[in-house]
Amino acid sequence: MGKQLSEVNNYLYSSTEVSDIRENGSWDGRKIPDIKSNYGYLDEEFSKKSISFKYGLNKCFTNFSSKDKTSYNLKLINNKVYAISIKRKYDFDSEQFKNDFKDVTLIIQKKFNHVSDNKIIQYKFNVSENNVNGEYIATAKSTIYDNLKKYPKIWKVNQVEIINGKDYTTNKLGGYALPPINLFIEIEFTELEGTPLDNRGY
Fold first, then answer.
1. For 18-31, what is the mean pLDDT?
2. Among the four residues 6, 40, 85, 156, which has the most C-beta atoms within 10 Å?
3. pLDDT (0 to 100) of residue 112
4. Does 65 score more than 80 pLDDT?
């Protein structure tokens, strides 16, 4: 988290474990430019970029083959990483799914305790085994961010979310096509400290 684009690219393009690198959802080698946005609340536009790739993460999941790859997605603003998501897919007959969800949840809970300092960071942790959209659990109240006393509900997000659910293909009308194709566990880390972004949009 917080890495610059140059550092990210140095690693991605030098590691033999990384494959299928795509920027901004590109495919077939096409280059898609970064998006310019002010998120509707900033005074100036900033450059948004996403980078997706696949990487072997065999130590974090049970019965994980060295040939298996986990999907990563990075979000950057002005070439700085502020969000990372990690997604692992499972077959419907996989016994690993519930075990991995439980184990990963325990690891995250031990590693990421409540964060507090004089600059206000609200921490939240989402876990839901039955609700595929995740369940909101607040571990701290938001407070006033530095120099923003006029807007008491603005804060720099620092959070971890764990979601499990089902993936679907899309039909000709753009909606979900049944049946679902696989199960998944997804972990997303977001850290807005050091960026122009806050909870109003990121």
1. 84
2. 156
3. 63
4. no
- Counting other chains too, the contacts that 63-67 makes at CB distance below 8 Å and 24 or more residues apart are 63/96
What are 172's two structure tokens?
A: 């000709």
Q: How far apart are the first and last CA of the chain?
A: 15
Contact 80, 192 (CB under 8 A): no
What letter does residue 192 receive in the DSSP assignment? Answer: -
β 156-170/121-122 pair status: parallel
Antiparallel, parallel or unpaired: β 125-126 and 156-170: parallel
Burial of 183 (0-12, 13-18, 19+ CB in 10 A): buried
DSSP state of 144: P
Distance CA 61, CA 68 (A): 11
Q: Does the structure show a pLDDT above 80 at 75?
A: yes
Q: At 80, list the tokens.
A: 């700085």
User: At residue 114, does pLDDT exceed 90?
Assistant: no
The pTM for the full model equals 0.76
Residues composing the chain = 202
Secondary structure, 3-state, 9-66: HHHHCCCCCEEEEEECCCCCCCCCCCEEECCCCCCCCEEEEEEEEEECCCCCCCCCCC
Q: Determine the average pLDDT of the residues in 30-41.
A: 88
Q: Are 90 and 185 in contact (CB under 8 A)?
A: yes
